[in-house]
Amino acid sequence: MHKKLTHSIVAILAACLTSTAVADDKKDCDKDARWVPVSGTGIHYFSTAIVHSERTKPNGKVQRSTETIDLSGDLEGRVLYQPRSRFDFVAGTLVNTGRQVFSGTVLGSKPVLIYDDEFRFEVNLNTGATVGKVFLVDRIAGPRVKCEIEIIGTGFTPEGDGLATYSGRCKVRDR
């Protein structure tokens, strides 16, 4: 019986690992998880950014840095953010891609670490309008949580740090 159970578990895991990701919860391998709406605010600390490199391009520059973002609301914690920033001064745009890790809680969960290397932020350098999408889906530690979030810039602090609101959804296990 133990052997049969082990084979069943292996078969289920293999099916989950080889299936393609789909948004439909009925086809998701996290059967005991559900999507929950989330929202809150954030502050992006430009004032404490560490610039690692900067390379001039014909229309702008490419910069690599390490920055932090604090989130409040349904996600409570800090993001360690390593963007590759592509500034195009002729077009008046900035696009950030790279890597980031969220450390904190989601909807009052136990502490989690979640990794994202698919985020994308677009900034209009002329108006300051900022929009971004974040995909915190690769769990490093803590409960199984996945978050898909949209971020909208809302202004700046007197120190020049960015203010934002976020909304989206997180998949959490039923308690």
Description of the structure:
10% of the residues lie in helices and 61% in strands. With 175 residues, the protein is mostly beta strands. Strands 1-3-4-5-7-8-10-11 form an eight-stranded antiparallel beta barrel. A hairpin with a 2-residue loop joins strand 2 and strand 3 (60-73). The longest helix is centred in the first third of the chain and has 17 residues, at 2-18. Mean pLDDT is 86; it is low at 1-28.
Write a concise keyword list for the protein shown above.
175 residues, 10% helix, mainly beta, 8-stranded antiparallel beta barrel, disordered N terminus, elongated
Which helices and strands occur, and which strands form pairs?
Elements: H1 2-18, E1 33-44, E2 50-57, E3 60-73, E4 75-88, E5 93-106, E6 112-116, E7 120-124, E8 130-136, E9 138-141, E10 145-156, E11 162-173
Antiparallel strand pairs: 1-3, 1-11, 2-3, 3-4, 4-5, 5-6, 5-7, 6-9, 7-8, 8-10, 10-11
